[in-house]
Specification:
Number of domains: 4
Helix content: 25-40%
Structural class: alpha+beta
Shape: elongated
Oligomer: single chain
Number of strands: 22
Strand order of the largest sheet: 14-20-19-18-17-16-15
Radius of gyration: 34 Å
Distance between the termini: 49 Å
Number of helices: 14
Length: 526
């Protein structure tokens, strides 16, 4: 059975922060474990039970204090185990922890620092090195990596498998800014590593060391809660090729590139797509990733000559409306009923219109009456109601339904009768005019794949996955209920090819549809 390993042990004296109680200092003993958690005991010398009763009133809590080795620490939002007995201290447990060396003198000198992040779920078997804006960084596996990965797979316990470290020079007053910049850069590296390994990789804590004489000594330790995603890896890049993969794509994967293309966000959706509990869910996540990339492409890269300028488009709208007004009369005058025949011979026509066009299910046996002045027709059943009001000039009518819906109707006097027509056809066509200036998803996808010169026709010649996506969105199921996985596997393969192609990768990868052995990546097949 997997046992978490103790990395460091501490002891010290702490203060429990409280606005309600004046609490005495407490003695704390705690350990840092290999999964990033901190656990320990709190003891107020001979007043364990009394302390526990006080803590029960304001957990979670914050504790600040000093270690016996000369550092200061802060526990944030920690919860204590409150089962007390004569020989039992309250338990301290959590992940949000910070340990810092005590500074007593202002210092403006430059120092050499090393920051080491503890990564979860990265399966490396030997060290790798890559360049960064902060100099060379190193990724190294922990000892017995094979054994640890097998234990993680069997027990589902998240554990530190690798360390990534940066060495840099900084003044102490600029240190926090430098750490923020490195963490920000590391987030991008972890996204790429997650993509390569097919599993969410993140760091659970970091240790900052300062060079003192000829060695680095611990200066600060910060912990955070990890993302608890699937531990099942589905590799796209084999571990021996990780270094060449990072060297190939890191220069492309800049902040501007991520913002302009959405590749970083798309990778997160890709990772969701390859670990679905329901295959339809995985298919939808894959479609979201592709549509995200396409939407960002349209926003930032698409050629503007295919989209009319605002003035040109307004002129087009005016012309189209004019054509509609002149030639759509036949569609615009859908006869509903004669005002003089309701209640009466046209009552059934009116109720059928309300049911078909407005989804009124209660109208079948509704009652209909007209006001004394003949200007309002009322339709009602129990608490449900609708009414149609005609204006004084008898040229326009308005339908109002009890759930606050309203609709304009047209009135025409024909053969001494007031006939009522639905105006929806013209209005619906007017609403669709803006779509004339909006490319379809399929045409936009063709533009995107042409722009990046990435092949797709061997997988989906006409982007057939769009139809499958629509079916799932509207019914929750695909037409074949995913009894065979062909379309799902092809979609994941297309997404992998798209992301690798946009990153300009040219090295070895594992093809989703031919995963016997790694092969050279090509944007186009055949």
């Amino acid at each position: 059975m997997h046992q978490k390993k103790i990395i460091k042990e501490y002891d010290g004296i702490g203060r429990i922060e409280s606005d309600l109680y004046n609490l005495p200092n407490v003695e704390i003993r705690f350990c840092q474990y290999s999964d990033g958690s901190i656990k320990g005991e709190i003891k107020n010398f001979n007043y364990v039970v009394e302390l526990g009763e006080l803590l029960m009133n304001f957990t979670p809590l914050t504790i600040e204090g000093n270690t016996s080795s000369g550092g200061s620490f802060v526990f944030n939002s920690y919860v204590t185990g409150l089962s007390f007995g004569s020989n039992q201290e309250p338990e301290l447990s959590g992940d949000d922890f910070e340990l810092v060396r005590i500074e007593t003198v202002e210092d403006h000198r430059e120092y050499d620092f090393k920051i080491e992040f503890a990564l979860l779920q990265l399966a490396l078997f030997w060290p790798i090195k890559c360049d960064s804006p902060f100099g060379e960084f190193n990724i190294s596996p922990v000892q017995n990596i094979k054994e640890i990965l097998e234990e993680i797979k069997a027990s589902k316990i998240y554990d530190v498998t690798s360390h990534i470290s940066f060495t840099f020079t900084s003044k102490k007053e600029n240190l926090e800014k430098k750490i923020t910049e490195i963490v920000d850069y590391l987030e991008g590296v972890m996204i790429l590593l997650s993509f390569a390994q097919g599993v969410f990789i993140n760091f659970v804590y970091y240790n900052l060391y300062i060079k003192d004489a000829e060695e680095f000594k611990l200066y600060k330790s910060v912990h955070r809660s990890p993302k608890t995603k699937s531990t099942t890896s589905e590799k796209l890049i084999e571990p021996p090729d990780i270094q060449s993969f990072l060297k190939s794509v890191l220069p492309t994967f800049t902040k501007d590139f991520q913002k302009g293309t959405g590749v970083g966000d798309a990778i997160e959706w890709y990772l969701e797509s390859i670990h679905p509990s329901v295959l339809e869910s995985g298919f939808i996540h894959g479609c979201i990733a592709l549509e995200l990339l396409n939407d960002r492409f349209k926003e930032n890269y698409k050629s503007k000559d295919k989209i009319l300028k605002e003035g040109q488009f307004k002129k087009l709208v005016k012309e189209v409306k004019s054509v509609i007004s002149k030639h759509i009369e036949a569609l615009d005058i859908e006869f509903l009923f004669s005002w003089d025949n309701v209640p009466g011979n046209d009552s059934e026509r009116l109720l059928r219109y309300l049911e078909d066009s407005h989804n009124i299910g209660w109208g079948g046996s509704a009652e209909i009456c007209k006001s004394n002045d003949g200007k309002i027709i009322r339709i009602f059943k129990h608490e449900n109601s609708a009414e149609i009001m005609i204006n004084e000039k008898e040229e326009k009518a308005t339908l109002k339904i009890s759930d606050a819906r309203a609709r304009s109707l047209k009135v025409k006097k024909e053969n001494s009768k007031l006939n009522i027509y639905d105006m929806c056809k013209r209005e619906e066509m007017y609403l669709k005019i803006p779509e004339l200036n909006r490319p379809t998803l399929k045409s936009s996808l063709r533009d995107m794949y042409g722009f990046y010169d990435i092949g797709y026709s061997d997988l989906f010649p006409d982007f057939e996955f769009v139809k499958i996506r629509d079916k799932i969105v509207h019914t929750g199921l695909s037409e074949e209920h995913f009894k065979d996985l062909e379309n799902y596997d092809k979609l994941v393969a297309l997404l992998q090819r798209t992301l690798l192609g946009m990153l300009n990768y040219t090295g070895e990868f594992i093809d989703r549809l031919d995963n016997i052995k790694p092969q050279k990546f090509k944007k186009k097949i055949g």
